[in-house]
Amino acid sequence: MNDRELGNFVLEKGDAPNESKIKIPGDKMGVPGTHRVTIIATHSSQDSDPRSALDDKSVRKFTCLAILSKKHVWLETIDGTENLDQAGSFLTTKDDSDKPFVNSKSGKIFFEKNSNSEICKASCEIETTSIHQARFLFSESLIPVLDFICVRANVPILVEKIHIKDTKNSLQSFDTTWPYQKKVLPPEILWVEDELASAYALFRESKNNISPYYKFLCHYKIMESMYKKIRPDFFTKAKREKIEITKTKELVPDHPDILNWHKEFIGKPISTLFQNELTKDYRNAIAHFLLNDGNFINISRGEIRGKYDKIVSVSEICAFILITNQEKMFEEYRSKKNAPP
């Protein structure tokens, strides 16, 4: 595995061009969630650096695919095949022989069905200068169409993977999902704090959801409840009972997943980050659906989704720190309250 940059991975494979599934050890994977993978086909007889293909700026044809699914799938293998086994949707056509397509600004987008006559794939041929530009053009053309169909058909439409192929350079780029690694169940649950029940619920809700917008809002509400309700009530109670609680400096940690996305936040007090950047630059925009220029936010736009994909690692780590530190405060409170005079 080479060149992890901002959650993007570049993998090389050898002389077996059909070998498009790669197993990666769990400890080599990044933060769980969606990552972009580029696979470069290499050959033993090749003299030049195969990565030079990534710099090709010539106009060429790209095959763009979107695999649909009824549910999100956690894979333990980087799968570069179309793999329609899990693909499907709640959409079909009137006739099994129908081959529907829509006209878009990037050309015709064709829809295909699986063996159950469910629409499972959308595809388009696009001529442009890079695999990243092909992805952008395809997404900008396809996603508004899917949003429109969702409203008209009144069914959920989940894009499991967008897959771009550069035949000229034997490149392919696609999204994949790093799974969570197995964790040992805590051997003993001594106490579940009633005051933290809402924070626990929001944290689990964020873990069970794949939307970066919803994840961020869950993390934000955890921090908001901590600063505006849980902690003020807790310290008021402790002060009334004359119990002194140890206060800990809560700083954004030097964590690799924060270093990749927002290293400028490292070392900053979490409370300051919450009050400033997280509130002004993220919470207000998604809560009011308004950008700084006054335009409505379109959460289907790739650059908007990417912005929240990047901040989710920061907000989750900060919310987790606040929860665990608050647990320690409750434990200290009980210990001193029950201590002999």
Can you tell me about this structure?
The chain is of the alpha+beta class and 341 residues long. The protein has 2 domains: 2-47 and 56-178, no CATH class; 194-337, no CATH class. Helix content is 37%, strand content 21%. It contains 6 helices and 11 strands. It has helices at residues 131-153, 197-207, 212-240, 256-262, 270-288, 302-337; strands at 2-5, 8-13, 21-23, 33-41, 60-69, 77-79, 101-104, 107-113, 119-128, 158-166, 171-178. The strands form 2 sheets. The protein has a 9-stranded mixed β-sheet with strand order 1-2-4-11-10-5-9-8-7, covered by helices on one side. A two-stranded antiparallel ribbon has the order 3-6. Helix 3 (212-240) crosses helix 5 (270-288) and helix 3 runs parallel beside helix 6.
The rounded Rg comes to: 24 Å
Number of strands: 11
Mean model confidence by pLDDT: 82
The strand order across the widest sheet is 1-2-4-11-10-5-9-8-7
Query: Distance between the terminal alpha carbons, to the nearest Å?
Result: 60 Å
* Helix residue percentage: 25-40%
Task: Give the SSE order as H and E letters.
Answer: EEEEEEEEEHEEHHHHH
- The tally of structural domains comes to 2
| Fraction in beta strands | 15-25%
* Overall geometric form: elongated
Show unreliable segments.
1-8, 12-19
Count of discrete alpha- or pi-helical segments spanning 4 or more residues: 6
